[in-house]
Every structure is written in structure tokens, then in C-alpha cells.
Amino acid sequence: MFLKFLSALFLPGLLVVWFTRVTYNRVLALVLTVALIAASVYKGYTHTMWLIVVDAFSLTVGFWYGARIKQRMKHSS
């Protein structure tokens, strides 16, 4: 159970950041990551409300950090 919480804390945020770098669009990155989380909830891997809350927190942090990365990429070129 600890591993699930640890994964929920880091992986969604990292996915948003990675998808932001790949697609150059942080909203699309957020939608893709939410779709992956929705699939995991549907399959039964995310079964407690606390895991969903931790996922949402990680998504929020990843979305914020993706905006910073996009802004840095915009200023550097």
C-alpha cells in the first residue's frame, strides 16, 4: 500500500511534465494523464479516496511545473 501512495505522489506529476515536453501543450498533457488515471480507476488499481486525492495533488503540482517549463522554453528561444 505504501508503494501505491508513493507512486500516486510522483508518477502523475512526472507524466504531466513529460507529456508537456512531448506535446508542447500542458492542457493536453493534463488530459492525457487524467485519462490514464481514469483507466487505472476503472481497472481497479486505484481503489481508495486517499489515492485519488494524492493523484489530484500530484497532477496539480505537475500542471504548475509544466507551466514553468513551458515559460522557460519560451524565454530561452
Automatic annotation (TrEMBL):
Keyword annotations of the record: Membrane, Transmembrane, Transmembrane helix
Residue stretches spanning the membrane: 48-67
One Pfam family per UniProt: DUF2198
InterPro entries, A to Z: DUF2198 (IPR019242)
Record-given protein name: CsbA family protein
Natural source organism: Niallia oryzisoli
